[in-house]
Amino acid sequence: MPGRNLISWNAMLTAYARAGHVLEASKMFESIPERDIVAWNSMIDAFSENGEIAKAQEVFDRMAARNAIANSVTFLGVLCGCCHGGRIAKARQHFLSMIGDYGVAPIYEHYRCLIDALGRAKQLEQAEDLMWSMPFLPDVHAWTSLLSACRVLGDVERGSRIAKKIVELFPKDPASYLLVSNMVTYKTDL
């Protein structure tokens, strides 16, 4: 593509990826003469968001093989892909590798992604432990994610405790009240 620079390549790649045109994004990615972190991250995100977790992992592995340095955004894409694909062990492995091997400090979104994944994987105790151990105060999204998992899995005791905490911490959040109401309804239906 004559006359294009790295910025225009990345813009096209990102546009294809966000529109869900993964095949076109992949072709664009392979055509980029010299990839930067934005291109790598865009391709990982494209595959992760479209359920092609193995391909996202493959791009991540190629990135490492080419000595491209992964950053916080890279790991968020990989973690989200693993989590939504049900690959909890792999997500944990990446989370630990991010810290130990790459020196990337986890941000709140990394923790929240893993908390959500643990909840979906019926590992409520681990999800709650992670939420309490993170170096950030849990926001309403982390709490409600855990509450939703409690409701789906029928963990009424944990769900009731979390529901009380949500109302205490976020009294002005209407979504919280809806989830708490759903939990109470579930509890009375038992």
Structural description of this entry:
Helix 5 packs parallel to helix 7 (108-120). The protein has a domain at 1-106: Serine Threonine Protein Phosphatase 5, Tetratricopeptide repeat (Alpha Horseshoe). The chain has helices spanning 6-18, 22-31, 37-49, 53-65, 72-84, 88-100, 108-120, 124-133, 140-153, 156-169, 174-189. The termini are far apart. The protein is mainly alpha-helical and 190 residues long.
Proportion of residues in helical segments:
over 70%
- Return the string of H and E elements: HHHHHHHHHHH
CATH superfamily of the domain at 1-106: Tetratricopeptide repeat domain
Q: Name the beta content range.
A: under 5%
Overall 3D geometry? elongated
Query: What gyration radius follows from the Cα positions, in whole Å?
Result: 19 Å
User: How many individual helices?
Assistant: 11
Task: Give the assembly state of these chains.
Answer: single chain
Low-confidence stretches: none
CATH class categorisation of the domain at 1-106: Mainly Alpha
First-to-last CA distance:
63 Å
CATH architectural grouping of the domain at 1-106: Alpha Horseshoe
Sheet having the most strands: none
Report mean pLDDT, rounded to a whole number: 89
**Looking at CATH, which topology of the domain at 1-106 would you report?**
Serine Threonine Protein Phosphatase 5, Tetratricopeptide repeat
Structural class call reads mainly alpha
Number of strands: 0
GO molecular function, one term: RNA binding
Keywords: Repeat
Protein name: Pentacotripeptide-repeat region of PRORP domain-containing protein
Organism: Selaginella moellendorffii
